[in-house]
Amino acid sequence: MSNVFSTSYPISRSPGVCHATGKGFLPGDRVVAALVGKGEELARADFSLDAWKSGSRPSGLFAYWTTTFHPGADAKRNKLSDEEAAELFEQLSGAETAAQEAFRFILALFLVRRKLFVYEGSSGGVMTVRPRTRADEPPAAASQVREVSMKDEALALALEQLKELIPDEAVQS
Fold this sequence. Notes:
With 173 residues, the chain is an alpha+beta fold. The protein has one domain (2-171). It is built from four helices and six strands, in the order E-E-H-E-H-H-E-E-E-H. It has a three-stranded antiparallel β-sheet. The chain has a three-stranded antiparallel β-sheet with strand order 4-5-6, with helices on one face. A hairpin with a 2-residue loop joins strand 1 (30-38) and strand 2. Helix 2 (82-91) runs antiparallel to helix 3 (98-113) and helix 3 (98-113) packs across helix 4. It is globular. It starts with 29 loop residues before the first strand and ends in an 8-residue tail after the last helix.
């Protein structure tokens, strides 16, 4: 499983055009960012909301999330927001491949590390996490995540690659 995170993936920047139609995005457009498996690598393909809603999907779809297009934006804007990371985590709940399960597991660890999710425990190879809520709110629903065995090096590399996707909490406003 460590090969899933063996290279750096070009997934933090939008190509600026709809993969289905070739039409360029305007600043502020909502788009669907898709990770597409190409052999051992992942590539990003963005879709307009209309194209996505009409059923356009790339072959090899690995995962997707919605985001806002910001051309020429600073590095922070080109990364996943907290809401987008949580959406990606939920979207991967239907993981169909070992690579998707590994990515979801690492994403869960990262969200717990960022204090966006709360670690509830682990039993029988399954970790339970839930989104953090305020004290005056009811607890959010828990999610089960199959734990993936990875060597320390692969785990560290995967966490570093997630940092490329999600802005550092010290820079968030």
